[in-house]
Amino acid sequence: MHAAVGRQPHSLPYLVPRGLRLARDFLILPDRAHRWSVAAVTGTMATLIACFIRYAYVERHHLTDSFFYDRLQFSFVDRGYPEIFGYGLELAACALFALSARVYGKKQWYAFAAILFVTFLDDAFELHEAIGHLFNVGLGLSPVAGDLIGFSTTGFLSVVFWLAGTRLIQGEDDWLPYLVFTAYFATLIFFGVGVDAVHGMLGKNVSQTLLTLIEDGGELVTTAIISLSAFGMWLRHKHASIARGAPMESALPNP
Fold first, then answer.
1. Which of 244, 247, 237, 16 is nearest to 108 (CA)?
2. What stretches pass through the bilayer (predicted)?
3. 251: part of which helix (H) or strand (E)?
């Protein structure tokens, strides 16, 4: 990192605009594979969200003749189509972070691969609920207390992985990408925890469809941004490696 004139190199006025530019560069690349990936993911999300809105409308007005009537899989529920798509995005990002760490020696990305895997286990297999149930059965705690312990455990694991990743950062230039993805995960937590809490407090006083769309739709969009940005970062590393005369294959272990 190079210090800007009149600004500290680690101050927010210095980091924020550079972080935004880097986030843009991870999402907008002159690469055909990445452009097609962005188009495919965006199109799929738009279709899933449109189907959810239609499903919610049909259910609200009891349009029993509609194709969407009583088809819960179009909603943001476990094993529903939007959630399954989110699981795929999480696993894709997990793999891309691990590849960036393995192939290019950026070992800090193992931390984000681990965080994504914990997120996937929690979303797909209700990890924090399972941990909470163990405490309920083993210690006789209430379901609320057990769920809180389970959620705290998965959150603690993610924090430990993140801190371990900071210890593996080798150069100044590796900090900014790490902070960009940290901001993305903070956004994911905002939708998954903050908006979810508001949803629970407001209850039926506001539109359930709107709150669900903000909460779960926000999580899905943020997960897509993380996955596509991880792919963009991988491609930038690949292009830089080739430009230096070190093709990607040379960094892979021999079979």
1. 237
2. 36-57, 84-101, 108-125, 145-164, 176-197, 217-235
3. helix 248-251
Instruction: Report how far residue 174's alpha carbon sits from residue 165's, in angstroms, rounded to the nearest whole number.
Output: 11
Query: How big is the CA angle at 233 (ends 231 and 235), to the nearest 5 degrees?
Result: 70
The pLDDT tens digits of the residues spanning 83-131 come to 999 999 999 999 999 999 999 999 999 999 999 999 999 999 999 889 9
Average pLDDT over residues 152-162: 96
203 sits in the region (left: phi over 0; alpha: psi -120 to 50; else beta) called: left
Residue 214 is which amino acid? I
Single pTM value for the model: 0.90
215 is written with which tokens? 């909460």
Residue written as tokens 């970062």? 233
Residues in the chain: 255
247: left (phi over 0), alpha (psi -120 to 50) or beta: beta
- Yes or no: say if 195 and 217 are a contact pair by the CB < 8 Å rule: no
In 11-142, alpha helices (H): 12-27, 32-60, 81-104, 109-125, 127-139
Per DSSP, 6 falls in state T
Distance CA 145, CA 218 (A): 27
Q: How far apart are CA 74 and CA 98, in angstroms?
A: 31
Dihedrals φ, ψ of 173, to 5°?
-70, -15
The distance of Cα 53 from the centroid of its chain, to the nearest Å, equals: 23
According to the model, what pLDDT value does residue 195 have? 87
pLDDT (tens digit, 9 = 90+) per residue, 176-217?
999 999 999 999 999 988 888 787 777 677 788 899 999 999
3-state SS class at 188: helix
Contact between 123 and 154 under an 8 Å Cβ cutoff? The reply is no
Are 81 and 87 a contacting pair, CB within 8 Å? no
